[in-house]
């Protein structure tokens, strides 16, 4: 098994005020010691100086850029239906998955941003918890990001996990495609953080999920996390329909079956998302990845309006039923105690 090396940014930009925070200074010193090129920027939302003559080149260079700033907005965005609020620890990630929805939502700003005022962010989370108690308030830490790649540089994810470990009425959840989880294994989580992994069939990862660990490496990381006592969950997404799809996804379930200890299977959750795309996403994908082999032929899809008012292309009804039947059956076969949260 090939092990993916940690993300090392090619360049970093700092907001000047980020250096007024202890974490900002720590990150600056850490990146300097790593030999990362550092420049200043007036705002983490308006970064100039990332090279690239074409959209594809600019995208790839942005994915190798880290921007360090201060989260200025105190209000958290909602995150229904999976949680009550987003917990803003960072934005974007260094991976280059061809189908990723962040390619459209982040537009020309796909660079990874981290926020150094973590204490202020967690203070705001505390206020939301106090407002809703005695009900449990859930926070999602990966709505617009993958928090793992920069964790070894920032440490903010562990800080958040331990914050929620002390909360009687607060719970935390996040999802990752990455495998560098060792620094989180000794966190005092008290079972209050659900650690979720985004998984896919091995050949899908190889073809479309660039700059991410392979299937076996992710599954092994999930086993480590489960043995550390975290509640775990898995997003299988996006699921693709092709001649060998059932055999490939069965291999994924079999690999998980070998890694997960028995005690976590009583509280295991699966989320299944089939491949879909919008016209805007397709156009953006074709600009960034002009040689993509993603199946985006409208003749084999159904156009469907989503909950946010825009349309997307999904698999037709018969294919969706076949995929749902097969995937939920595989989950029940390997993990009969697990819960399927949804299939879309």
UniProtKB/TrEMBL annotation:
Keyword Cell wall biogenesis/degradation in the entry? The reply is: no
Alphabetized GO MF terms: 4 iron, 4 sulfur cluster binding; DNA photolyase activity; S-adenosyl-L-methionine binding
- Source organism, top-level taxon: Bacteria
Q: Which Gene3D superfamilies match?
A: 3.40.50.12110, 3.80.30.30
- Indicate the segments forming the Radical SAM core domain, all copies: 79-307
What keywords were assigned to this record? Lyase
**One Pfam family here:** SPL
Gene Ontology CC, one term: endospore-forming forespore
Q: What is this protein called?
A: Spore photoproduct lyase
Query: Which organism encodes this protein?
Result: Anaerospora hongkongensis
């Amino acid at each position: 098994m090939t092990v993916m090396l940690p993300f090392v940014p090619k360049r970093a930009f700092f907001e000047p005020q980020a250096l007024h925070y202890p974490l900002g200074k720590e990150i600056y010193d850490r990146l300097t010691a790593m030999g990362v090129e550092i420049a200043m920027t007036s705002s983490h939302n308006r970064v100039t100086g990332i090279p690239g003559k074409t959209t594809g080149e600019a995208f790839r260079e942005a994915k190798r850029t880290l921007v360090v700033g201060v989260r200025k907005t105190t209000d958290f965005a909602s995150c229904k239906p999976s949680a009550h609020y987003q917990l803003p620890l960072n934005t974007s990630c260094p991976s280059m998955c061809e189908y990723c929805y962040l390619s459209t939502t982040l537009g020309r700003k796909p660079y990874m941003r981290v926020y150094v005022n973590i204490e202020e962010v967690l203070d705001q989370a505390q206020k939301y918890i106090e407002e809703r108690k005695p009900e449990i308030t859930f926070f999602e830490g990966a709505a617009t990001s993958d928090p793992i790649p920069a964790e070894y540089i920032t440490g903010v994810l562990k800080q958040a996990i331990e914050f929620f470990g002390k909360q009687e009425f607060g719970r935390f959840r996040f999802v990752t495609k990455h495998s560098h989880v060792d620094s989180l294994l000794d966190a005092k989580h008290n079972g209050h953080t659900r650690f979720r992994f985004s998984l896919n069939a091995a050949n899908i990862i190889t073809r479309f999920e660039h700059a991410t660990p392979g299937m076996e490496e992710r599954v092994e990381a999930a086993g480590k996390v489960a043995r550390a006592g975290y509640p775990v969950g898995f997003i299988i997404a996006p699921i693709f329909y092709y001649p060998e799809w059932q055999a490939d996804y069965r291999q994924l379930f079999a690999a998980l079956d070998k890694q997960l200890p028995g005690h976590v299977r009583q509280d295991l959750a699966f989320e299944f998302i089939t491949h879909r795309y919008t016209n805007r996403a397709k156009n953006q994908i074709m600009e960034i990845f002009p040689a993509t082999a993603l199946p985006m032929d409208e003749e084999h899809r159904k156009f469907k309006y989503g909950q946010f008012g825009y349309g997307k292309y999904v698999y037709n009804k018969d294919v969706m039923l076949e995929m749902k039947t097969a995937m939920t059956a595989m989950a029940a076969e390997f993990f009969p105690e697990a819960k399927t949260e949804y299939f879309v």
